[in-house]
Structures are given as C-alpha cells and as structure tokens.
Amino acid sequence: MASDPIKKVSGRAVFVAGDDIDTDRIIPARFMKCITFDGLGDYLFYDVRKTEKGEDKPHNLNDPKFAGASILISGNNFGCGSSREHAPQAIMRAGFNAVIAGSFAEIFFGNSTNLGIVCACASDADRKQLVATIEAEPSTEVTIDVVNQQIQFGQYSIPFEIKPGAKDSFLSGSYDPLDELLEGASSVDAVVSQLAYMQGA
Amino acid sequence: MGKSLFEKVWEAHSVRQLANGQTQLLIGTHLIHEVTSPQAFGMLRDKGIPVRFPHRTFATVDHIVPTDEKSEPFSDALADAMIKEIRRNCEQHGITFFDLASGKQGIVHIVGPEQGITQPGTTIACGDSHTSTHGAFGAIAFGIGTSQVRDVLATQTIALNRLKVRRINVEGKLGPGVYAKDVILHIIRLLGTQGGTGFAYEYAGSVFDNFTMEERMTVCNMSIEGGARVGYVNPDPTTFDYLKGRPYAPKGADWDAAVERWSSFASDPDCAYDDVVTIRAESIAPTVTWGITPGQAIFINENIPAAENAKDAAEKASIEEALEHMHFIGDTPILGTPIDVAFLGSCTNGRLSDLQEVAQYLRGRKVADNVKAIVVPGSQGVSMIAEQMGLDKIYKDAGFEWRGAGCSMCLAMNPDKLIGDQLCASSSNRNFKGRQGSPTGRTLLMSPLMVAAAAVEGKVADAREVFSVHEKQTALA
User: Fold this and answer.
1) Which residue on chain A is closest to B18 by alpha carbon?
2) Which pairing describes strands B123-126 and B29-32: parallel, antiparallel, or unpaired?
3) pTM of the predicted protein model
4) Residue B57 needs a FRET pair 20 to 30 A away by CA distance; which of A59, B17, B189, B295 works?
5) Do A111 and B154 touch (CB under 8 A)?
6) CATH superfamily membership of B5-264
7) Burial class of residue A17 (count of CB atoms within 10 Å of its CB; 0-12, 13-18, 19+)
C-alpha cells in the first residue's frame, strides 16, 4: 500500500514528562480486551490522566491549552516494555502524528513507523528548549522536517536523529511494508525450500 | 573469522534487501495469542489476502483466560469475544490452535518449548515482547506488533533491521538461593533498561553452560526488559536432550540430521561480537526490584536508593517518581517490607522446575495470614505433571491457591488483579505502574523462592534464611 510520503509533520505539541514511559502506561492492558483498534484513542495514558473514579487529574493531556496537539514530546526510552501495537494505535487515534523523545524502545519504534507515526530523537537540551517554548506559548506551531532532520518552532531549529531506513520509508511513502513483502514471494519460496523445519503440511 | 549464531540464523533466513535498506526476514515459526492477533486477521480479511503458510503458525490463548473458573462463556464478555475470535480465525485459516480443551493450552512462551515447536537455528516471532524466551534454544526470537503479525500471516516475513550482538558471560558458580531470575535482574540493573536497544544478547559462560533449559528460558525471557529484543543461548546437548521426544521435535533419522544441523548454528569460537560483558556469578545475590522499572533493583540486603544520591537530574526524577508510587522511603531496607499478595507464575517463572524448586522448601510451611498467595502453572502441561507429582497439595497445604494455566496476575487482562495499592511479591517480569491491574498497585519482582519466602513471612525476606538454603538442593523429581 503505497501511502502518501511524509516529508514533514506540523502541529501544536504537548509534553508528557518522564523517562522509561512504558506501553502499559501508554495504554493499560485492561483496555486491550478488544478485537479491533477502534476507540483506543480514548484510553491513551488513561491512568496518567484519570483518577480511579475516572475524573480528570491535572495533566497536560487534560489541559485545554494543549487540546488538539498532534505532536507528543517525552523523555528517554519511550515505549519500553510490551510490544503491544495498541500503544502507537492509541497515540495515532488520539490525533498524534509524531513523537519527539530522547530515545525509543525498539519494538515501539518499529510499530510506530509502520503506522506512519514519525519518531524523532532529540537531545535532552534541545527538548528542554522545545518544552519551555510550548509551555510558555502552547499555540506554537512545531514542524518536524523529515527531509532535513530539523524541528522548527518559533525562532528555533533543533536537529533530530531517525533511523535511515525509517526516514527513507517516510519519504517514499513505503512505511507500511506489506506490498513490498508480498512482491518478494518467489524469493521467500526459495529460502523456505532450504530450511528443513519449514517443510511439511 | 567465524560467525555468531545470530549471523548464521539471520543469513539463513534473509530473503532480500528492501528499498529502505531493511532485510526481508523469513519467520520460520509464528506463534499467536488472542490479544495481538485479531486485528491482524481483520486486516487480511479487509484486503482479501490468505495466510501464506498456515502450518507454520501456532496459536494458544493465555492473556485473558480466567485461572479459576474456565467454563465458557467467560463472565467477562470482552474476554469471551476474544477467545471466540481466535478460535474462528484459526478454524478459518487452518491454523493449529491449542485450545482450552486440548490439554496443551498455556502461556504461549511455555507451550512452544513444551511442544517442541521451539527449535535451534530458527526464527520465531510472536505479537508479544517476551518471545525472546525462545532464544534459550538458540533461536532468533522476538516480539512484533500486530501489523507485523499481519505481515507474517500474509508473507511469512517481516521487514527488520539487523541487530548488533553483545555477548554476556556469567562465569563462576551461583551461590545457594541465587537463581536465573537473579541473574537477569542483575544484568538489567548493570546494563540498564535501554542498554540492549539495537542489540541481540548472547548469554554464555559457565553459568549458562550449567543451566537447565528452563533456567535459560527465564533469562532470555526478560531480555526485552533490558531493551534487547532478542536474547539467546547457543544450542548444546542440554538443548537437544530437552527437545528429544517432544511432539513437534523431529523423529528417527530426522532427529540425528536435526541435531547436526542445530549444532552447526552455534557461535564459532573465533566470531566477533560488537560488545562483550563479563559478570562474576559470585557477585550476584538474591535481587528484588524496589521501583517501577525492572532496572530499579537491589540485592535483598541493600537499602532502597535515595534521590539525593542520584548521579544526575534524570535519575533523581526517576527515583522520586518510583519512591512516590511505591510509598517507599529512600535509604531504608527493602527487607521486612510487608506484602499483601504473592504471585508465583508467568512466562518468566511459571515452569515445572520453578514450581518444584519452591515446593521442596514450602512443605510444612504456611502462608502468613495477611497474604493472598496464588500459584499459576504456565501451561496445562505443567499443571498436569505438577499435580501428578503432588505439588498442588504442597501448595494448597501451605495456603496457596492452586490455579489453572494462564498469564494471570502478570498483567491485568483476566480476573487476577491487585486491588488498590496492594504490594505484590511477584515472580513475573514487569513492575510498571499499574501493570498488575490496579493503577496504584505495587509490584516487587523476584525469584520464585523469594516470592515464597515473602508469602510465608508476610514481608520481604531473604529466602536463604527463611528456608535455610545452604547448598543447592536437587529438585524433587
């Protein structure tokens, strides 16, 4: 499924503080009792945002100042833990197109890339500048320029890292790999024929 | 220059390079469960794509299964819909499903090895991060997301970046009462929760040479908690002995050929690693987590860290956040902390040898009055053998609830959950906030015997003292 290329992502941003934000935090397991991903956006960071009675806690994600944000900012090792794709699905379905963090856990990064969510790694100092800017002025437009690997906001421009393969996939619109994998069918058969344990049935 | 197991398996399963530089990698064995597969089947249905190699996908049901009352329909309608969905998908596509009535159902990472599906020199993927467990057999095994489950169903391949390889040697002899769980908690503590990002971990050294397959699985299981998507041990006679005679293991002449092939995948002595770490076994003591990541761990006799001793602002914030959630005070002992719940089970420590090891010490002991203790065999297979051995009676006599197979209280997708801010001594793998089902619930990860010690004492205790563990006893069987 060739998708549209993603050359830049623009929008307002919101900060969720902390390192090692795990995927249980992003979407608690009890909300994974589902057979489709529909509606998962409602449960994004549920226990971070809500009290046990379901009332809003004071949190950036509940703050009207940041309503409509489409870029999430967080700390290091974002998305660690469970491989659940429900986490990036919840992020996407809550209206986010990109996450800017110090670093990403590997499975989360791959799952997000497949969905077209841009995961950009920026340094602690640069993210601090970004967070200070958006917290002072939540309407600040943040632009992630995938081609040049720069994040622009107000008068600033900061660099970010992204795996070359993921960058190429966004720029060519091939971040969902299924079509390309299907095209390799005859090569798959050749490899299968060499592996004893793949025979049978 | 020789090659590592990782390189050999990767090369044997590489289909081609994709336009973005990633590898199209063949996934020889695909395991699925009810939580992360239904959407993948839905995507195939939407696109009208069939399952390419149905005989290479194996399914079971584990996360949502109640461990007490298993009759259907489940009282939880959502859970009931999920089991029906995987049953339907497997029927429709001709996929082997180890269903509740099969006698083979259980946690997917316990069922695969038990059935002999997990084999050396293979690639294994499952929509579950603890798929690294299967690396214990010298397989390259890793967790994937649901879109990749779709890719495997449709093509038997995924797009992946090649990993670097870090060899972790643990040399020497573990002290009495120190287990595989302590080894992996210690490794994560040393290398950090993101230290393994981009790496496959190759576990080696005399400790791993002497480990049983079940001990190797415990370590490989938690690789992802250290950031490593893949963790493996080179195959050896211990591996082959475990597999021989299992339902899906090769038979007769095929067996001898398989052993020869499997052996050839082991890392060559002269291969190069991207990194090597060596740890002395004697330096490892029973380990307990005190915080909200598996890397926040200390030896049982150490004090909980204090925020003021943090090395930088980020660590200070992490310690403060963890102490607040755990209701702990920095620079105080973890020993003696009262617990509410003891959970023995999970894909980390729900195997027969875990239940045997604890049972031999638990005989004649009683769970403390204030503690709810449950033991959950990882599979129906484990449960059956344990009951034949009379282990269930030992646990029940001690005051544990003896449950049916499933993921249970490792995560909160079935009726087994913490309530409020209960503190749980747990043999599972994650102590994240809310992991065990209550947003304010608190988890202490530790070895099965340490869980039993905490259950008996009603508080965090040193199992070596509680059970007078001196020399490592041989298991009951």
Assistant:
1) A180
2) parallel
3) 0.97
4) B17
5) no
6) Aconitase, domain 3 (3.30.499.10)
7) middle
